[in-house]
Every structure is written in C-alpha cells, then in structure tokens.
Specification:
Layout lengths: L2 E6 L7 H16 L3 E6 L5 H12 L5 H25 L4 E4 L6 E3 L8 E4 L2 H8 L3 E5 L2 E3 L6 E3 L5 H11 L4 E6 L20 E3 H9 L7 H10 L3 E5 L7 E4 L18 E17 L4 H11 L4 E6 L6 E9 H13 L1 H4 L3 E14 L9 H11 L6 E5 L2 E7 L3 H11 L17
Parallel strand pairs: 1-2, 1-9, 2-6, 3-6, 9-11, 10-12
Antiparallel strand pairs: 4-5, 7-8, 11-12, 13-15, 13-16, 14-15, 16-18, 17-18
The protein binds adenosine-5'-diphosphate (ADP), aspartic acid and magnesium ion (MG).
Length: about 425
C-alpha cells in the first residue's frame, strides 16, 4: 500500500461545494488502495480576511494572538473536510498542527519546523482512516504556544509529513494545472512545465513564484521528497519537482532549457544609504543594523566610490522596509552617511534557468528586450542560474510579459486559471 500526502490550498476549499468535491477526490485515492494524509489550508481568502480583521482591532496585533487567530482558519477546513469524507462512508480524523506533532521554533508568524512526531497521524492511518492535518501551524515546546510557518506554509507542512512518514509522493493541489513559466494570472500565454529541478524551483520560489512555499521546496530537496504540483479542478498531469542527482522519478530524460521561468515580487522596498565613508567595516556596520531588524535582504548593490564616499542600496520586502529605514536613521551619525532614501514603489523580477550556466548572451538579450520596451532597470543581481532586476512597480508586469516573449516561453494557447482571487 502506498502512502500519499495530498495538500489542498485555500482556493480548492473555498465553500461547502468545493469541500465536498475535494472530499470525493480524496475518497477515490483511498479506495484505489492508498493510505492518505491530507493537509489543508484555510478556506478561500480566510487568512487574509482574518488579518484584515486583526488590523481593524489594533494597528500592531500581538504576534502570539495573531497566530492563535490565523490557525483557526485551517481548523475550520480540516473539520469540515473530515465531516464530508465521513459522510461519504470513509473514516477520517482531523488533527491540529500540534496534535500532528509539528514541532517548531518559537517565532510567531515565521516559525521553522524542528521536529515532526506524527504518532497520532500514523495511528489514524493504521486504523484505516484518512488523516486530515491543519497546514501552516505548529507548536513550540519551550513556550508551549501555537505558531505559524509564514504565508503559504501549508505546503511545508505537507512536505514535512511526507518526509517523516516516507510517503511515495507529496501532491500539492492548487488552482492552476502546475508550475508555469510564469504566473498565468499575469501572462495568459504562460506554459505549463512538465518537470522542474528542485534547484530551479528554489530560485523561482525565492524570487516570488508563490505556487510553492520556498521552505517546502528546501525541505523536499533536503529529504528527497518528490513533489507533484497539480490542479484540484482537473485530472491533468501537473509538474514534477525533483532532484536531478537522484534522477527523475519517472525515469524521464529532461534537457535543461536555458530559461525555465520568470518569477516576480510586487512588495519590494529599496533603501539607499548614501555618502557612506569608503573605509573597511562600513558594510559590516550597516548590515549588522539591518540584521537586528530581522528583515530579509533580497539584493545589495554598492556603487563605485567617489571622493572616498559610496552609496549602498538594498532591497527588502515592503513589510520590513519601514523598520529597516528607522533602524538606519537611528544610527545615522555612527554610520556617518550623508543621505538615507526609501522607495517602496518598486518591484523585482527574476529570470531563472539551469541552462544559463553554459549559455552566453542571456543578460544581453534580457537588457535589450527591456530597453526595446522602454523599461528602466534600477538594480541588477545574478546567481549562476538567475538574473534579477528591480524596476518601477508600475512597469513590472509589462517587463515580465516582454521577457516571456523574448525568451520564447509563450504557449500557443492561454493557460487555465480555475479559481482563486490571486490575493
Ligand atoms: P493555494 O491556495 O493552492 O496554496 P497559491 O495562491 O498559494 O495557491 O498558489 C497558486 C497561485 O500561484 C496560482 O493561482 C498563480 O496565480 C500563482 N503563481 C505564481 N507564479 C506561478 C507559476 N510560476 N506557476 C503557477 N502558478 C503561479
Ligand atoms: N492559510 C495560510 C495562508 O493563506 C497558509 C497556506 O495557505 O498555505 O498563507
Ligand atoms: Mg499556496
């Protein structure tokens, strides 16, 4: 008997009808002789609505209470789904993150999984039941509190359970047919990718392709879990995310394209520390200040020094932008800079492809295409298999469209987006 983990995102569980549809699908998997663990997200846009509600009550909600609030979303879907499955004649038992043994660090809102002790999930399977687990939540042993793994974290719950219980595959069910060359909500001619290496998927997820949670991809890679991203609204074969070192799970020979896909991030902010004395130790000082704010830095650019002074710019997510600029402002005298600038109307896009390693001229082609479209580039950074550029927020989507066409990624027909609001 194979063990299969299936994760259903919010848009697949938006109302009672969808819950019944998903329940039917799970029951079919069970009846073909598999053991099934299901991980659920909150229904529809519940998490966003709960966040809005919290913001109405107080401008800065207490992180512990926010986690209490948000985890309620997944509890609703797990209980309703278990009821629906039982109504169809199969046994099902739902579990919160802590009941399922998802042990995490203590940081509310961005906890990391440190241990998985799924004894109760295993027992449920042994009794012949389908186990339904609330995604995105865990429990910290030190504080005794409930935590969450960060937005989109249900994918990571699913992968962690698949790894802990040695599942054959971890299926991520969503509202599109798989991983596309870019977000099909933005580029209608985006093309579905049959299989993608975990290395490329990591770069895409880290650059904003929210179809998979970054940490889920990292976890899957570390533990050798094969992911299958597919739609809960169709029976199409989706996208296999695999580690080429371990070989393609279906033995397929996949030639790596030069460009695999384009990801983007709308919520970026740029901070410039201008006129920094060009002496050793200044970068260390600046980035120690930024590190204390716990902000995640995306990109860093240092200009050539003039008159022994230089500018250092960095980008962070918009939600962290204010606290970074405030921390730098407070240390302005110590740094000895002449200027601090903040811009939040910017966005970032990244072109990713493992074949870039051996190809030349990719950056030239990228910059030419953006120039031809009249799009100005504000910052550039690269890795071996990625080129990222920062643009003004209002031209980013156009830039993605232009590059999708320039790199020959356009499909012949439009992609299907089955549901969801894209929120
Ligand atoms: P779920 O609620 O199922 O977790 P998400 O909204 O988190 O779904 O992720 C699915 C969405 O990710 C798609 O509807 C699509 O708009 C977006 N997306 C962004 N980049 C991509 C990509 N490269 N391929 C497919 N979907 C993408
Ligand atoms: N419900 C959470 C969110 O919307 C977790 C998830 O869906 O993965 O971010
Ligand atoms: Mg998601």
């Amino acid at each position: 008997m194979a063990l299969i983990v299936q994760k259903f995102g919010g848009s697949s569980l938006s109302d009672a009808e969808s819950i019944k549809r998903v329940a039917k699908r799970i029951v079919e998997t069970r009846r073909t002789g598999n053991e099934v663990i299901v991980v659920v997200s909150a229904m529809g846009d519940t998490t966003d609505e709960l966040l809005d509600l919290a913001a109405e009550v107080t401008p800065i909600p207490a992180p512990r209470e926010l986690d209490m609030l948000l985890t309620a979303g997944e509890r609703i879907s797990m209980a309703l789904l278990a009821m629906a499955i039982k109504g169809m004649g199969e046994e099902a038992l739902s579990f919160t993150g802590s009941q399922a043994g998802m042990i995490t660090t203590a940081e509310h809102g961005s906890a990391k999984i440190v241990d998985v002790t799924p004894r109760r999930v295993r027992e449920a399977l042994d009794q012949g039941a389908i186990a339904i687990v609330a995604g995105f939540q865990g429990f910290n042993r030190g504080t005794g509190d409930i935590t969450t793994l960060g937005r989109g974290g249900s994918d990571t719950t699913a992968v962690a359970l698949a790894a802990a219980l040695d599942a054959e595959v971890c299926e991520i069910y969503t509202d599109v047919d798989g991983v596309y060359t870019t977000d099909p909500r933005v580029v209608h001619l985006a093309r579905k990718i049959d299989s993608v290496t975990s290395e490329e998927m990591l770069e895409l997820a880290a650059s904003g392709a929210k179809v998979l949670h970054l940490r889920a991809v990292e976890y899957a890679r570390r533990h050798g879990v094969v992911l299958h991203v597919r739609s809960s609204f169709s029976n199409e074969q989706g996208t296999i995310v695999y580690d080429p070192k371990k070989g393609h799970p279906k033995g397929a020979q996949v030639e790596e394209p030069i460009i695999t896909g384009i990801a983007f991030e709308r919520n970026e902010a740029k901070v410039t520390v201008g006129g920094v004395p060009d002496v050793p130790g200044k970068a260390a000082q600046i980035f120690e200040i930024v590190a204390k704010t716990n902000a995640n830095i995306d990109m860093i650019v240092q200009n050539v020094s003039e008159d022994n002074r230089t500018d250092i710019s960095l980008t962070v997510q918009t939600k962290d932008g204010r606290k970074v600029i405030e921390a730098l402002e407070a240390a302005r005298e110590t740094i000895g800079c002449t200027r601090l600038q903040y811009a939040d109307q910017i966005a970032k896009l990244a072109v990713v492809g493992a074949g870039m390693r051996d190809a030349s001229g990719v950056s030239a082609q990228l910059f030419r295409a953006l120039f031809d479209a009249g799009i100005n580039i504000e910052m550039i950074s690269t890795s071996e298999i990625r080129i990222s550029v920062v643009t003004r927020a209002d031209v980013m989507e156009k830039a993605v469209q232009v590059l999708h066409t320039a790199f020959g990624l356009d499909a012949d027909e439009e992609a299907t987006v089955y549901a969801g609001t894209g929120r």
